[in-house]
Every structure is written in structure tokens, then in C-alpha cells.
Amino acid sequence: MELTNTELFKNLLDIELNGEDVDLHNDYKCSDVLYSGKDLRLKFKSNADEGEFLMIQFVDTEISKLEFSFGNNDGITLDNFHRGRYEIEGKLFDEYEGKKCFYIEFYEGGTIELLCKQVILIHPRFPHQ
Fold first, then answer.
1. Could you give the CA distance from residue 30 to residue 34 in angstroms, rounded to a whole number?
2. Of the candidates 15, 82, 86, 112, which lies 20 to 30 Å from 30 by C-alpha distance?
3. Are 11 and 105 a contacting pair, CB within 8 Å?
């Protein structure tokens, strides 16, 4: 499911996917953060079904802020996820050089702020989103 052009400041914690509600805050925990070649992936495992997972992929990513720790947790809870504006030389931008800004915060503490060209929600139950 494409999330790149979501309206500004819209809460992306609850997403409707093929008529089914996906609640990223209550039903999933972030279990892995993978970054390679400007590709950031956040992997989430289901709280109810141990084998179920989903992934949020950020393509062509520039990370401006990254701070969090999994500590001894079995995962951390996504608490805020939205597209926003960012400031460059005193001016606010919705998009800059083809990239959009996303803000991610976790309940247990931690933040990711990034610019990217594309955001995709990948869910194995819905392969043709």
C-alpha cells in the first residue's frame, strides 16, 4: 500500500487495507529496524498472531534524526507516524527535491525523522495493495 502522498499530518497509525483495519499502535510491535543503501525498513510483528508481520519501507531515505533503544523489550510500540513539513533555511517545505518528510515516534521513547521518495506498507496477507 502506497503511503507517500498521504495528506499532511494525517495519523498513519490506523490504516484501512482492503477493507480491513490495520492498527499499528495496538496490534503490532516494531521488532526490527533495517537500513541499507538509503532503504529503511521497519518490521512489525503482530501482538495476536506470532507468525504475522508487516513492514514499512522508506525508499531513497535521508535520516535527519534517529534515536531509540529496544532495550530488553520484545519490540516497541509505534505511537506517532505522519507526514509533515520540514524547514530548510527558514522556509517550510511539504516536498523538497522529490522527497517528503515523515515523523515516527515510539511509546517507549525514540524518534525517527526522515526524508524519502516513497513509503510502502507491505503486508503478506494483502500482496496486491
1. 11
2. 86
3. no
Q: From the CB of residue 114, how many other CB atoms can be counted at a distance below 10 Å?
A: 20
Report the C-alpha gap between 80 and 61 in whole angstroms.
19
Give the DSSP letter of residue 13.
S
Residues 6+ apart with CB under 8 A from 12: 3, 6, 24, 81, 82, 83
pTM over 0.85: yes
Mean pLDDT in consecutive groups of 10 residues from the start of the chain, 129 residues: 90 87 92 92 90 92 84 82 90 89 91 94 71
Write the single-letter amino acid at 101: C
Please tell me the distance from the alpha carbon of residue 117 to that of residue 9, in angstroms, as a whole number: 17
